[in-house]
Amino acid sequence: MFGFPKAKPQQVTLVNDAGETVTTFTLEPKETLLNGALRNGVDFPYSCKVGGCASCKCQLVEGKVKELTDKSYLLSAEELQENYILGCQSIPKSEVVVRMPDASSATVPGTLTSIHWLTHDIAEVHLKLDSSVTYRPGQYASVAPADQSLPARCYSFAHAVDDGGDSAVSFFVRKIPGGKLSHWLTDSDNLGKAITLSAVAGDCTLREGTAAIVCLAGGSGLSPIVAILEGALKSGQDTRPVQLLFGARGQEDLYYLNELNALGEKWRADFTITPVLSDEPQDSDWQGKRGWLADAITADNAAGHQAYLCGPPVMIDTCMEKLKGLSSAPGQIFFDRFSDQSEGGSAG
Protein backbone atom coordinates (compact mmCIF):
# COMPACT_ATOMS: atom_id res chain seq x y z
CA MET A 1 0.00 0.00 0.00
CA PHE A 2 1.40 3.35 -0.99
CA GLY A 3 1.58 6.28 1.41
CA PHE A 4 2.53 9.91 1.15
CA PRO A 5 6.24 10.62 1.71
CA LYS A 6 6.98 12.07 5.12
CA ALA A 7 8.46 15.54 5.40
CA LYS A 8 12.19 15.43 5.99
CA PRO A 9 14.39 17.66 8.14
CA GLN A 10 16.25 20.10 5.91
CA GLN A 11 19.59 21.83 6.36
CA VAL A 12 19.74 25.62 6.19
CA THR A 13 22.92 27.57 5.53
CA LEU A 14 22.79 31.29 6.26
CA VAL A 15 25.29 33.50 4.46
CA ASN A 16 26.15 37.20 4.66
CA ASP A 17 26.25 39.74 1.84
CA ALA A 18 29.75 38.53 0.89
CA GLY A 19 28.48 34.96 0.53
CA GLU A 20 30.35 33.79 3.62
CA THR A 21 28.67 31.19 5.82
CA VAL A 22 27.28 32.66 9.04
CA THR A 23 25.76 29.48 10.48
CA THR A 24 24.23 26.15 9.53
CA PHE A 25 21.35 24.38 11.26
CA THR A 26 18.72 21.73 10.63
CA LEU A 27 14.99 22.40 10.60
CA GLU A 28 12.33 20.12 11.97
CA PRO A 29 9.91 18.67 9.39
CA LYS A 30 7.41 21.34 8.25
CA GLU A 31 9.21 24.04 10.27
CA THR A 32 9.48 27.50 8.77
CA LEU A 33 12.84 29.07 8.14
CA LEU A 34 12.19 31.81 10.71
CA ASN A 35 11.04 29.47 13.48
CA GLY A 36 13.99 27.19 12.91
CA ALA A 37 16.42 30.09 12.98
CA LEU A 38 14.97 31.42 16.23
CA ARG A 39 14.97 27.94 17.78
CA ASN A 40 18.66 27.68 16.98
CA GLY A 41 19.48 31.03 18.57
CA VAL A 42 19.91 32.98 15.33
CA ASP A 43 19.22 36.73 15.56
CA PHE A 44 16.80 36.69 12.61
CA PRO A 45 14.74 39.90 12.15
CA TYR A 46 10.99 39.47 12.46
CA SER A 47 7.92 41.18 13.83
CA CYS A 48 4.51 39.69 13.03
CA LYS A 49 5.36 36.04 12.14
CA VAL A 50 2.15 35.86 10.06
CA GLY A 51 3.33 37.13 6.68
CA GLY A 52 2.13 40.65 7.21
CA CYS A 53 5.16 42.91 7.62
CA ALA A 54 8.15 41.68 5.53
CA SER A 55 10.58 42.20 8.43
CA CYS A 56 11.88 38.66 7.86
CA LYS A 57 12.37 38.93 4.09
CA CYS A 58 15.57 37.28 2.91
CA GLN A 59 17.08 36.07 -0.35
CA LEU A 60 16.92 32.42 -1.35
CA VAL A 61 20.31 31.72 -2.95
CA GLU A 62 20.01 27.95 -3.46
CA GLY A 63 17.33 25.33 -2.96
CA LYS A 64 13.53 25.27 -2.94
CA VAL A 65 10.90 26.28 -0.40
CA LYS A 66 7.16 25.86 0.02
CA GLU A 67 5.57 29.27 0.57
CA LEU A 68 2.52 29.38 2.81
CA THR A 69 1.12 32.73 1.64
CA ASP A 70 1.28 35.03 -1.36
CA LYS A 71 4.37 37.21 -0.90
CA SER A 72 3.66 39.46 -3.89
CA TYR A 73 1.61 41.82 -1.70
CA LEU A 74 4.68 42.62 0.41
CA LEU A 75 7.70 42.37 -1.87
CA SER A 76 8.60 44.63 -4.77
CA ALA A 77 8.84 43.38 -8.34
CA GLU A 78 12.63 43.64 -8.08
CA GLU A 79 12.69 41.57 -4.88
CA LEU A 80 10.50 38.91 -6.46
CA GLN A 81 12.84 38.70 -9.46
CA GLU A 82 15.82 38.40 -7.10
CA ASN A 83 14.18 35.43 -5.33
CA TYR A 84 13.39 37.08 -2.01
CA ILE A 85 11.15 35.12 0.34
CA LEU A 86 9.48 35.63 3.72
CA GLY A 87 11.25 33.63 6.42
CA CYS A 88 8.06 33.19 8.47
CA GLN A 89 6.13 31.77 5.50
CA SER A 90 8.78 29.54 3.90
CA ILE A 91 9.27 25.82 4.60
CA PRO A 92 12.36 24.39 2.86
CA LYS A 93 11.73 21.45 0.52
CA SER A 94 15.45 20.82 0.08
CA GLU A 95 18.73 21.98 1.54
CA VAL A 96 18.75 25.74 1.16
CA VAL A 97 21.22 28.60 1.25
CA VAL A 98 19.73 31.91 2.38
CA ARG A 99 21.29 35.34 2.48
CA MET A 100 20.58 36.78 5.93
CA PRO A 101 18.57 40.00 6.22
CA ASP A 102 20.19 42.90 8.02
CA ALA A 103 19.47 42.44 11.71
CA SER A 104 21.22 45.60 12.80
CA SER A 105 19.16 48.48 14.15
CA ALA A 106 19.89 51.35 16.45
CA THR A 107 18.39 51.24 19.94
CA VAL A 108 17.31 54.63 21.25
CA PRO A 109 16.62 55.17 24.96
CA GLY A 110 13.77 57.39 26.06
CA THR A 111 10.99 58.00 28.57
CA LEU A 112 7.25 57.34 28.74
CA THR A 113 5.96 60.91 29.06
CA SER A 114 2.17 60.93 28.71
CA ILE A 115 -0.91 58.81 28.08
CA HIS A 116 -4.02 60.24 26.39
CA TRP A 117 -7.03 57.94 26.33
CA LEU A 118 -8.90 57.93 23.01
CA THR A 119 -11.46 55.22 23.87
CA HIS A 120 -12.02 52.94 26.86
CA ASP A 121 -9.23 50.62 25.63
CA ILE A 122 -7.10 52.64 23.15
CA ALA A 123 -4.67 55.35 24.26
CA GLU A 124 -2.18 57.56 22.47
CA VAL A 125 1.10 56.85 24.25
CA HIS A 126 3.80 59.53 24.01
CA LEU A 127 7.53 58.89 24.30
CA LYS A 128 10.40 61.35 24.58
CA LEU A 129 13.56 59.89 23.05
CA ASP A 130 17.14 60.84 23.89
CA SER A 131 17.83 61.34 20.17
CA SER A 132 15.75 61.72 17.02
CA VAL A 133 14.59 58.78 14.93
CA THR A 134 13.59 58.79 11.29
CA TYR A 135 10.93 56.62 9.72
CA ARG A 136 8.46 56.58 6.87
CA PRO A 137 4.79 57.19 7.75
CA GLY A 138 3.17 53.79 8.10
CA GLN A 139 6.20 52.12 9.68
CA TYR A 140 6.45 50.72 13.20
CA ALA A 141 9.08 50.21 15.89
CA SER A 142 9.85 47.81 18.70
CA VAL A 143 9.25 49.25 22.19
CA ALA A 144 10.14 47.81 25.61
CA PRO A 145 10.84 48.89 29.19
CA ALA A 146 14.53 49.71 29.51
CA ASP A 147 14.93 47.23 32.38
CA GLN A 148 13.85 44.40 30.03
CA SER A 149 11.20 43.32 32.53
CA LEU A 150 8.84 42.69 29.61
CA PRO A 151 9.48 41.51 26.04
CA ALA A 152 9.41 44.15 23.32
CA ARG A 153 6.35 44.62 21.12
CA CYS A 154 5.88 46.48 17.85
CA TYR A 155 3.68 49.57 17.52
CA SER A 156 3.01 51.80 14.52
CA PHE A 157 3.97 55.47 14.65
CA ALA A 158 0.83 57.59 14.93
CA HIS A 159 2.07 60.66 13.06
CA ALA A 160 4.23 61.63 10.12
CA VAL A 161 7.83 62.38 10.95
CA ASP A 162 9.29 65.87 10.70
CA ASP A 163 12.20 66.53 8.35
CA GLY A 164 15.34 65.39 10.09
CA GLY A 165 13.48 63.01 12.41
CA ASP A 166 11.59 63.30 15.68
CA SER A 167 12.57 62.80 19.31
CA ALA A 168 8.93 63.01 20.44
CA VAL A 169 6.89 60.11 19.04
CA SER A 170 3.57 58.50 19.84
CA PHE A 171 1.60 55.32 19.15
CA PHE A 172 -2.04 54.27 19.43
CA VAL A 173 -1.93 51.38 21.91
CA ARG A 174 -4.88 49.08 22.55
CA LYS A 175 -4.98 47.71 26.08
CA ILE A 176 -5.25 44.01 25.28
CA PRO A 177 -6.68 41.64 27.90
CA GLY A 178 -3.65 39.75 29.18
CA GLY A 179 -1.31 41.90 27.12
CA LYS A 180 1.56 42.70 29.48
CA LEU A 181 3.28 45.49 27.55
CA SER A 182 0.06 47.20 26.45
CA HIS A 183 -0.98 47.33 30.13
CA TRP A 184 2.47 48.67 31.11
CA LEU A 185 2.44 51.41 28.46
CA THR A 186 -1.05 52.57 29.40
CA ASP A 187 -0.48 52.55 33.17
CA SER A 188 -0.01 56.09 34.54
CA ASP A 189 2.16 54.64 37.33
CA ASN A 190 4.84 54.10 34.68
CA LEU A 191 5.02 57.73 33.53
CA GLY A 192 8.62 58.90 33.67
CA LYS A 193 10.02 55.39 33.40
CA ALA A 194 12.75 54.52 30.90
CA ILE A 195 11.99 52.73 27.64
CA THR A 196 13.94 51.65 24.59
CA LEU A 197 12.86 51.96 20.97
CA SER A 198 14.47 49.98 18.13
CA ALA A 199 13.94 48.11 14.88
CA VAL A 200 12.09 50.68 12.79
CA ALA A 201 10.57 48.64 9.95
CA GLY A 202 7.49 48.05 7.80
CA ASP A 203 6.51 48.38 4.15
CA CYS A 204 2.93 49.65 4.47
CA THR A 205 3.99 53.12 3.39
CA LEU A 206 2.57 55.50 0.79
CA ARG A 207 3.56 54.84 -2.81
CA GLU A 208 3.57 57.86 -5.06
CA GLY A 209 1.11 58.02 -7.91
CA THR A 210 -2.07 59.63 -9.15
CA ALA A 211 -4.60 56.88 -8.35
CA ALA A 212 -7.27 57.45 -5.74
CA ILE A 213 -6.50 56.01 -2.29
CA VAL A 214 -8.67 53.77 -0.12
CA CYS A 215 -7.59 53.32 3.51
CA LEU A 216 -9.09 50.58 5.67
CA ALA A 217 -8.43 50.69 9.40
CA GLY A 218 -9.67 48.60 12.29
CA GLY A 219 -9.22 49.55 15.96
CA SER A 220 -5.70 50.78 16.70
CA GLY A 221 -4.92 50.14 13.03
CA LEU A 222 -5.93 53.76 12.54
CA SER A 223 -2.47 54.74 13.85
CA PRO A 224 -0.38 54.10 10.69
CA ILE A 225 -3.24 55.33 8.49
CA VAL A 226 -3.17 58.72 10.24
CA ALA A 227 0.61 58.84 9.74
CA ILE A 228 0.28 57.93 6.04
CA LEU A 229 -2.33 60.61 5.42
CA GLU A 230 -0.36 63.26 7.31
CA GLY A 231 2.72 62.31 5.28
CA ALA A 232 0.75 62.52 2.04
CA LEU A 233 -0.40 66.03 2.95
CA LYS A 234 3.18 67.10 3.68
CA SER A 235 4.52 65.62 0.43
CA GLY A 236 1.86 67.13 -1.83
CA GLN A 237 0.04 63.84 -2.50
CA ASP A 238 -3.23 65.42 -1.31
CA THR A 239 -4.36 65.88 -4.91
CA ARG A 240 -5.43 62.22 -4.83
CA PRO A 241 -9.01 61.44 -3.68
CA VAL A 242 -9.19 59.49 -0.41
CA GLN A 243 -11.80 57.09 0.94
CA LEU A 244 -11.18 56.15 4.58
CA LEU A 245 -13.23 53.21 5.91
CA PHE A 246 -12.85 52.94 9.69
CA GLY A 247 -14.12 49.80 11.41
CA ALA A 248 -15.09 49.72 15.09
CA ARG A 249 -17.41 47.75 17.36
CA GLY A 250 -19.70 50.56 18.50
CA GLN A 251 -19.94 54.35 18.67
CA GLU A 252 -17.90 54.38 21.88
CA ASP A 253 -15.01 52.79 19.95
CA LEU A 254 -14.79 55.55 17.33
CA TYR A 255 -12.02 58.06 17.91
CA TYR A 256 -9.83 60.68 16.23
CA LEU A 257 -12.65 61.71 13.90
CA ASN A 258 -12.30 65.44 14.65
CA GLU A 259 -8.59 65.32 13.83
CA LEU A 260 -9.26 63.37 10.63
CA ASN A 261 -11.96 65.83 9.57
CA ALA A 262 -9.51 68.69 10.17
CA LEU A 263 -6.96 66.91 8.00
CA GLY A 264 -9.60 66.38 5.33
CA GLU A 265 -10.39 70.10 5.27
CA LYS A 266 -6.79 70.76 4.19
CA TRP A 267 -6.93 68.07 1.49
CA ARG A 268 -7.15 69.46 -2.03
CA ALA A 269 -9.02 66.46 -3.47
CA ASP A 270 -12.13 64.69 -2.15
CA PHE A 271 -11.63 63.22 1.32
CA THR A 272 -14.36 60.94 2.70
CA ILE A 273 -14.49 59.21 6.11
CA THR A 274 -16.92 56.32 6.56
CA PRO A 275 -17.16 54.68 10.01
CA VAL A 276 -18.49 51.11 9.97
CA LEU A 277 -19.83 49.57 13.22
CA SER A 278 -20.02 45.81 13.71
CA ASP A 279 -21.66 45.53 17.14
CA GLU A 280 -23.72 48.71 17.54
CA PRO A 281 -27.09 47.98 19.21
CA GLN A 282 -29.91 47.88 16.68
CA ASP A 283 -32.05 50.28 18.72
CA SER A 284 -29.35 52.98 19.00
CA ASP A 285 -29.40 56.35 17.26
CA TRP A 286 -26.61 55.34 14.86
CA GLN A 287 -27.49 56.30 11.28
CA GLY A 288 -24.23 55.22 9.65
CA LYS A 289 -23.03 51.94 8.16
CA ARG A 290 -23.24 48.68 10.09
CA GLY A 291 -21.54 45.31 9.58
CA TRP A 292 -18.00 44.18 8.94
CA LEU A 293 -15.52 46.50 7.29
CA ALA A 294 -15.30 44.28 4.20
CA ASP A 295 -19.06 44.74 3.73
CA ALA A 296 -18.48 48.47 3.14
CA ILE A 297 -16.00 47.92 0.28
CA THR A 298 -17.64 48.61 -3.08
CA ALA A 299 -16.63 49.29 -6.64
CA ASP A 300 -17.36 52.97 -6.04
CA ASN A 301 -15.03 53.42 -3.08
CA ALA A 302 -12.28 50.91 -3.85
CA ALA A 303 -12.07 49.62 -7.43
CA GLY A 304 -8.99 51.01 -9.16
CA HIS A 305 -7.75 52.58 -5.93
CA GLN A 306 -4.39 52.17 -4.28
CA ALA A 307 -5.28 50.37 -1.03
CA TYR A 308 -3.74 50.58 2.48
CA LEU A 309 -5.04 48.19 5.13
CA CYS A 310 -4.11 48.18 8.83
CA GLY A 311 -5.77 46.15 11.55
CA PRO A 312 -6.28 42.63 12.93
CA PRO A 313 -5.52 39.64 10.68
CA VAL A 314 -9.14 38.59 10.11
CA MET A 315 -10.00 42.13 8.99
CA ILE A 316 -7.02 42.25 6.63
CA ASP A 317 -7.80 38.87 5.10
CA THR A 318 -11.52 39.50 4.51
CA CYS A 319 -10.91 42.97 3.11
CA MET A 320 -8.18 41.73 0.78
CA GLU A 321 -10.50 39.05 -0.58
CA LYS A 322 -13.12 41.71 -1.26
CA LEU A 323 -10.54 43.91 -2.99
CA LYS A 324 -9.37 41.00 -5.14
CA GLY A 325 -12.97 40.43 -6.14
CA LEU A 326 -13.04 43.99 -7.41
CA SER A 327 -9.94 43.24 -9.52
CA SER A 328 -7.64 45.38 -7.41
CA ALA A 329 -4.08 44.76 -8.58
CA PRO A 330 -1.91 42.94 -5.99
CA GLY A 331 0.84 45.50 -6.59
CA GLN A 332 -1.53 48.25 -5.42
CA ILE A 333 -2.52 46.68 -2.08
CA PHE A 334 -0.36 47.32 1.00
CA PHE A 335 -1.14 46.13 4.50
CA ASP A 336 0.02 45.73 8.07
CA ARG A 337 -1.47 42.93 10.17
CA PHE A 338 -1.81 43.77 13.86
CA SER A 339 -1.71 40.74 16.16
CA ASP A 340 -1.77 40.46 19.92
CA GLN A 341 0.60 38.48 22.15
CA SER A 342 -1.53 35.36 21.92
CA GLU A 343 -0.73 35.24 18.20
CA GLY A 344 2.97 35.83 18.66
CA GLY A 345 3.02 38.86 16.40
CA SER A 346 3.25 42.62 16.46
CA ALA A 347 0.81 44.51 18.59
CA GLY A 348 0.59 47.39 16.18
Could you please describe the fold and organization of this structure?
This protein has 348 residues and is of the alpha/beta class. The chain folds into 3 domains: 11-99, Beta-grasp domain (Ubiquitin-like (UB roll)); 108-201, Elongation Factor Tu (Ef-tu), domain 3, CATH 2.40.30; 213-343, Rossmann fold (3-Layer(aba) Sandwich), CATH 3.40.50. 17% of the residues lie in helices and 32% in strands. It contains 7 helices and 19 strands. It has helices spanning 33-39, 77-81, 180-185, 222-234, 257-266, 299-302, 313-325, and strands at 11-15, 21-26, 57-62, 65-67, 84-86, 90-92, 96-99, 108-117, 122-133, 140-145, 153-156, 166-174, 194-201, 213-218, 242-248, 271-277, 289-290, 306-311, 333-337. Strands 11-10-13-8-9-12 form a 6-stranded antiparallel beta sheet. A 6-stranded parallel beta sheet has the order 17-16-15-14-18-19, with helices on both faces. Strands 2-1-7-3-5 form a 5-stranded mixed beta sheet. Strand 1 (11-15) and strand 2 form a beta hairpin. The longest helix has 13 residues, at 222-234. It is globular and about 60 Å long. Residues 341-348 have low confidence and may be disordered.
Structure in a nutshell:
It contains seven helices and 19 strands. The chain is an alpha/beta fold and 348 residues long. It folds into three domains: 11-99, Ubiquitin-like (UB roll) (Roll), CATH 3.10.20.30; 108-201, Translation factors (Elongation Factor Tu (Ef-tu), domain 3, Beta Barrel); 213-343, Nucleotide-binding domain of ferredoxin-NADP reductase (FNR) module (Rossmann fold), CATH 3.40.50.
